[in-house]
Every structure is written in structure tokens, then in C-alpha cells.
Amino acid sequence: MDNAFYWINEPAQWQQEQGALSVITDEKTDFWQKTWYGFERFSGHIFATEVTEDFTFQVKITADFTTLYDQAGIMFMTDEHHWLKAGIEFNDGASAIGSVLTLGHSDWATGIFPGDPREYGLRLTRKGESLRLQYSVDGETWPLLRLAHFPYAQKYLIGVMCCTPERGGLVVRFHDMRLTPPLDKSLHDLS
Q: Whose CB has fewer CB within 10 Å in the chain, the N or C terminal residue?
């Protein structure tokens, strides 16, 4: 992995070896801005790099989600008030696939994950001011999770995130991280 990646809210325990990043989440870490709950939190762990051009970022994530709001996935952002996070989040007794788009206020879109949530893939493609977010249960088929507008900035951060608002100690492994020029596939091409 490129040494241009760096931590925001570095966890106490992590290691990087053989192309994989392993993290154990710190206690009561979270990302959220205002909506419904009223609070503002930006204490979760982010390992990211700066980008200025269009791109595709892809990663495989392994974790055992067991506690309310346990989560791991990807993070795309300009600052703590403008970001998109996506991945598995433990909610209502099950692992759900979802995303939170925050442009001053956070939204939350979530749904049933159709595969084994202990290992899955995420892919984010930026094309201008559009974001195409996809997930995969098998690494071959990539259904659309979200298509969103994200305001233009001169630079962004893209990388992985994890947090545990109700506890600490979630063990997460991020592997097969790839940052490439944007995949310019048809919206309904799921490869």
C-alpha cells in the first residue's frame, strides 16, 4: 500500500502487513452530524489518501459485527461536515449494508445485506460531482448501493473507516485496496 495513506483519529491498535490493514477499534468512536440525534461526532478511525482527480477505490473488508452500530467500510470526504461513509453496520440485531451522506447534516440509508457480512467488498467511483457506490458479496458482481451528488472541491480524501459507537474492540481487516482511474462502466453494468 502507498505511504500516502495516513490516519485521521488513529486507533491505539493497528498493523499493516502483506498488503492488509488490521484495526481494533477504540471505544465509543463514531461519525454523525446532527440529524435526528442532534449530536456531532467525528471520532471514528479513517485511513485515507488525498485525491484530486476522478477515481475508483475498491476494498475487501473482513469483520465480525455483533454490537449495535459496529461498522466498517469506506470514507470519502472533504472535511468533518462533508463526507460519504458506506459499509456494513450492525443495526436492529443484524448486519445491514448502508451509507451515510453528510453535507452539513447526516442522512442514513440502510437495507438488508444479502450475503455473509463477515467479508464483503465496496467500490466507490467519482466522476465529476457524481459518486457511484457499489458493494459485492462475491467480488464479481457489484450492485449499486447509492448514486449521489457530492459538491466539487479541489481535493478529497478517500480510504477506509471503522468505528464502534457502543463499545471498543471490533477487529477489522481491510485488504485488496485499490485506487485506480475511474471505471467508466454503464450504470447497469454490475461487473
A: C
2 and 16 in contact (C-beta within 8 Å)?
no
Q: Which domains does the chain have, with CATH numbers?
A: 6-180 (2.60.120.200)
Cα–Cα distance between 51 and 8 in angstroms, integer?
A: 16
* Structure letter (DSSP) for residue 88: E
Mean pLDDT over residues 39-51, rounded?
A: 96
What are the two backbone dihedrals, phi and then psi, of residue 97, each rounded to the nearest 5 degrees? Answer: -95, 135
Neighbouring CB atoms inside 10 A of 3's CB total 7
What is residue 47's DSSP assignment?
Answer: E
pTM comes to 0.96
Q: Specify the length of the chain in residues.
A: 191
Tens digits of residue pLDDT in 113-133: 999 999 999 999 999 999 999
